[in-house]
Design a protein that fits this description.
mainly alpha, 343 residues, 71% helix, two-stranded antiparallel ribbon
Length: 343
Amino acid sequence: MRSIPWKQIVISVGVLVVIVWRVPFGGLREAFRNLETGSLLLALFSFLVLLFLRAYKWHTLMAAAGKGHLGQSLRSLFGGFALGLITPGRLGELGRCVFVREQERTQVVLLTVFDRLLDFWALLTLMSVSLFWLVPHPAAVFGVAVWLAFLPVVMGFPALISHASQLARKSRRFRRHFLDGSTAMPLVPTLRFAIMAVGAMVAELAAFFFLLRAFFPTGFTTALATYPYIVLAGDLPVSFSGMGVREGAAALLLSPYAVPSSAAVDASLVWFVFAVLLPAVLGALWLVGERVKAQMRKSDRVAPMADLPWIPKTLTPVPNPIIAESVSPPCDVGQSTISPLSV
């Protein structure tokens, strides 16, 4: 009970209550009635592309570190999705190391942090582009300069991890695990994964744009100017899986673009279903299926032993009739015993 994020749950419920109070339920239902099917299908296709890019990026990252088994990569990725659903701000996605072997967890932690750092850098890239539609050009140029200043940190993160391992020599055990986990980090092609992270962010932006158009006709610049900040608000660890805060941010940021609050909230809710809930459910089903298969294999190994007939520990020996007839009883002659076989 203590481990349940009660504060985040209360914040999520409170924000949702405010949204329901300010946005009538009839407006939300009416927006779903007027849903455009074509844009919804395009949004679904964009989400599939996003899921493929994220899976391919993570598997390639694992393969670059010497872990090229596809099943292991997908298991850890979708397991992290399942953990992210039940943690504040989707921080549970950092727990991909739980689904690998113990001796590989340190390295997977470093790879996960690197992967999430690239995703955050891609979000900053989208934010720097959106500034040209939100603020005057000098301020937008300053935002691009901040993005450029952050770029060397991202590109040099593997080398930074390798250098930080040299500072962990006080603890012998920690040094051994840290060095083992950081050996493959300098071999990771950072630029390649940064490009894949930007591509995944573009697919995510396209999915949100098509969702928004499914509920209300609007331009692409509307999604570009608002989506990065909606994602940033949802990723803050102040609510349960971003619920409530993300919908409130969408209604607030899209209102200056004449987008109804009902359409903004509905688009944000459907985005949550496709981008967060669906991968998490797939990950949970994967883990449950593996557990069921393991239990079935275990029962199959025990079942043949249970079918063996019961054999008593002590049995009375049964005399062989052939031997009993061929061997005559011994004859007593005087004080000695003479057997017929000895003659």
